[in-house]
Amino acid sequence: MGSGGLSTVRVLMCALLCAMCLLQVKPVNAVNSINSEITGVENLLKAKQYADADSKALLLLEQALQQQQMSADAFSSLGLLLQNASRFEVSKAIFNAALERYTVEGKLSRMASTLLQLAISERHLSNYAMAMTYVRRAMSIAQIEQDDLLKARLNLELGIIQQEQGEIETALEPLKQALSYFRENNMANEMSLSLLRIGEIYSLLNQGALAHTYYQDAFDSIENTGSPKLLGTIKARMGALALKSGSIKQAIETINESLTLLLTSDDVGAIAQAKMLMGKALVENGDIPKGRDLLKEAMQFASSSGQAKLMKEGRLALAQAYMKEQSFELALAEARTGTIDARKNRDIRGQLSFLSLQLSAFVSLGEFKKALDVQSVIQQLREVLLDSENKSAIEGLQAEIELVRQSRTLEKLEESKQLVLAQAERENLQTTLFWSVSLAALLLTFLVWSRYKQRQQTIILRREVRQQTLILQEKNQELERAYKTLEEVSLRDPLTGLYNRHYLESQLPGEIRRSQFSAKQNIEANKSKQDLLCLLIDIDHFKRINDDYGHMAGDKVLSAFANVLKEVFRQTDLIIRWGGEEFLVVCRQSNREELPELAERCREMVARTSFDIGLEDPINITCSIGFSLLPPDKEDDFDTAWKRTFAVVDYALYATKLSGRNGWVGVIETLKSPRANPTLLDTRFNFPGSRIATSFNNVASITWPDTLDK
What we know:
- This protein is an alpha+beta fold.
- Among the domains are: 358-434 and 446-490; 501-701, Alpha-Beta Plaits (2-Layer Sandwich), CATH 3.30.70.
- Helix content is 73%, strand content 7%.
- The chain contains 26 helices and eight strands.
- It has helices spanning 3-46, 50-67, 72-84, 88-105, 108-124, 128-145, 148-164, 168-184, 188-204, 208-222, 228-244, 248-263, 268-285, 288-305, 308-324, 328-344, 348-365, 368-388, 393-435, 440-490, 501-521, 542-549, 551-568, 595-607, 638-658, 680-685, and strands at 531-539, 574-579, 582-590, 610-611, 619-620, 623-629, 664-670, 690-694.
- The strands form two sheets. The protein has a six-stranded mixed β-sheet with strand order 2-3-1-6-7-8. Strands 4-5 form a two-stranded antiparallel sheet.
- Helix 17 packs parallel to helix 19 (393-435) and helix 22 packs antiparallel against helix 23.
- Mean pLDDT is 81; it is low at 22-26 and 391-401.
- It catalyses: 2 GTP = 3',3'-c-di-GMP + 2 diphosphate.
- This is diguanylate cyclase.
């Protein structure tokens, strides 16, 4: 090759190298530019320039979609940034773009995570139907991928959605499933959030003490390691609970602590929620102007971020503040606006709340005809609510009682009005007679006719009010019956028909007190039938049944197992489905010496029973049992007695499993004097000594666990 040919080759090689460098530099420059734009959005959010941040994010989205330069992960990061700043509408658009990219790339796990974020945004915007759709889609992917962590997070979100929709009892199950996973895997923040949401459910059920326990557990679990945002949110719910119970000063103090924590986290949504609670607390405390300003500030944020629920709560609180100030016209205006918004969102409960405020405002303004019209609308809505949502019976009952009270107040006000009119007429008659005797007959006739017409109107109005009151009383009775039915359902396990933990918590304190009182009255306790006996029974290798035959077979075994327990124990004994394959039995008015006999009878009955699971041949199962006297030693405090007893029977059950299953281990009684060779059970529970019974060879053959974790 000549020198000219070599020169041409060199030039071509240089051009090729330059082109390759440019191709590499271009993507890098594009990525740097996108990162710079995302940082710009973040800076606008920190400066609280939300409108500019929304516009910039949407412009970046449009450009990225046209040029195909932005990755799915970058979309997801931008969506989370906007979601954390409560810009839920814009975050939806960003997450949808990320979902589309992940779908094209076939990344199922990332698709499910993005669907979860979309569900969170829709839930904050009160679009619950769409949120549920996203959760179901994500759950299907999680099942395929066998991603237990994602399942737990989806269960948590599912419980939150159901809770905010008013499906309180339904929401408990997914929340408890999520809590179980987070607790097993030591995920403190997620566990705390699950405890917080369960506490909110118990607060809605008016179980304030139980709700506070869950809130406190949620706070304690992350007090030293949790984020200020979550800690502040928990404190805010504690403050809301104190406000609900009437402890105004405590509520203000707790909400102040919440705001202090939240202001360090820059979570504008949580801060607005806390400010709304503080506004309500200040109004209740009498500082209405300051409280009203905080409520308006929270509503302004809710309006800008599209949070319908926060907007409704703020408007309701603001209308109530106006009522306290006796600014009835302003209260009426807010209540009317709230009613219209609730009607648009098909929120029956919201309509009832605002209509009740309208009723109070009309009564206070003396516009009784309008008040009766509003009352009629309220009654119609309550009938719709009663037909469609029996689970809201408790709230409906309280509202109906308030409505009856307001109706009676209306009747009394109407009677007072007639008395005032009568007095005015008498004065008018005296003045007329004084000035002109000639017109006396005409004026007397007019007054008699006027009084007659007014009396007729009064009779008609009273009759209408009385009829409405009778109708409301009938509805109250229907609601009471529905409440009793709901209460019965909430206290029983739907699969086995046995009582659940709620029933045990309501019955056990009284049983322990009666047993302790009888023991004090009868010194010879062994000769009496006054002991409480506690047995914890677990089906052996139940997971294998589910794995080998399916969950429907497992459900049949659980149902049949419950029937076996009913045959073994008396009708007066408390048989509880404790959870999963565990059952708890509390025998009342029994003798502690009967414990080994009861345990052996139960074990033997289960072992020789054939369980039909819908296959050609039935199966046989065994069970393991741990038992104890309740309480094992003399304790006066219920919480201490029950917690210690359950820890003992749980420990004994675990020892049974470690010792070979299909048997029983338990404590018949504790001793007053120390034993020479205490067992591991005595050491763990600080017993001086104990009398232990077992179905195995002897106490020495028992394998005691080192911990209480199964």
